[in-house]
Amino acid sequence: MNPVFFQYSKDNILDQVINLFVEKGWKSFQKGDHFLNHCYMWPDIVLSDKKNGIIGEKGIEALGTYTPNKKTIKDGTVTLYIQTIKSTAQEYKEQQKLILSLDEIIEKLSTLVLIHEFTHWIIAIGFGRDQIIPAKLEYSCKDSIYFHESLAQIVTNYFCSKDPTLKHIFDWIEKGQPQAYSVYKKIFHPTKTVAISPEQINRIIYIVILLQIREEIDSKNPAYKVLIEEIDSNNQYCNALRKATNSNNQSYDLLKEYYDQLKALDDNKLICTEIIDLIIDETLNKRPNKFVEYPELVIRYLRENKDIQAFKKKYFGEITGKKFGLS
């Protein structure tokens, strides 16, 4: 079999995953001519013969993982567990009785895993690397785990839905995975099978941008210290912390909440890079390393169908007031 990143050209699917975010205003990527077979910077991709658990317990992470670099957020490694991918492909072929060769299934399955893990990587490095330092990845409770796995599954579903074979494999794997890998369906009030549409993926990426602009938690905040002392064995820390600080940007509950608020809007109003640029200009450039909580304000702007000048005129006082703690 050829290596899985095989015949990748300048129009490969992993660059398409990155470009999906770039088109929506994601600022962490620049195209480069110095790459041999892709347009954007990628994390390292490693093939491993090690075992990493089973799908029924670890979901798609049994087939591949993304590991952030501890020293710099922009690096990291995506690992493909080749033996597990191969055995999963064999099981799929035996159960489905398809005419696809084993090598073809391995190639498709590996592509699916890479899309999932690249999405983890994109979310980890953040919306604007030079402007916003991403919060440390939170993956310690149900709310944050659901957030990260839902995003990865949503993007993977979106790209797999363009290829009937990939989508068939995606749906087959999903049936045997833990709940964290299928809970994303509740965001869309779906039927049993879900094919993510362009409108849905647009909303999701827009919401993630809003969440990443939210104010970071200040570990010196007295409320934060009180909550640390209240952590219990039931893992209620995430929800309690979110309610007290209203600033956790890695929350499935907030992802779903904002999606519910935006889903009735005209899709042409959703991806508004002008308002995002205004927010960054009004906060980060004047108050470095501190962010103001703007998602609700932006949603109001979108729902009222205001153009950018109308928004500035009506809400500039609110922006200034929030910035200096006056509202």
| H/E topology pattern | HEHEEHHHHHHHHHHH
Average pLDDT, rounded to a whole number, is 75
Major beta sheet summary:
3 strands, mixed
Radius of gyration from the CA trace?
21 Å
Across the major sheet, the strand order is 1-3-2
Short structural description:
The chain has helices at 13-22, 55-58, 82-96, 102-125, 142-160, 164-175, 198-213, 222-229, 237-245, 252-262, 273-283, 295-303, 308-323, and strands spanning 44-48, 64-68, 76-81. With 327 residues, the protein is mainly alpha-helical. It has a three-stranded mixed β-sheet with strand order 1-3-2.
SSE topology sketch:
Blueprint: H1 13-22, E1 44-48, H2 55-58, E2 64-68, E3 76-81, H3 82-96, H4 102-125, H5 142-160, H6 164-175, H7 198-213, H8 222-229, H9 237-245, H10 252-262, H11 273-283, H12 295-303, H13 308-323
Parallel strand pairs: 1-3
Antiparallel strand pairs: 2-3
Helix pairs in contact: 1-4, 3-4, 4-5, 5-6, 7-10, 8-9, 11-13
Describe the structure.
It is a single chain. This protein is mainly alpha-helical and 327 residues long. It has a domain at 1-197. 50% of the residues lie in helices and 5% in strands. The protein has a 3-stranded mixed beta sheet. Strand 2 (64-68) and strand 3 form a beta hairpin. The longest helix is centred in the middle third of the chain and has 24 residues, at 102-125. The chain is globular, with a radius of gyration of 21 Å. It starts with 12 loop residues before the first helix and ends with a helix. 37% of the residues are buried.
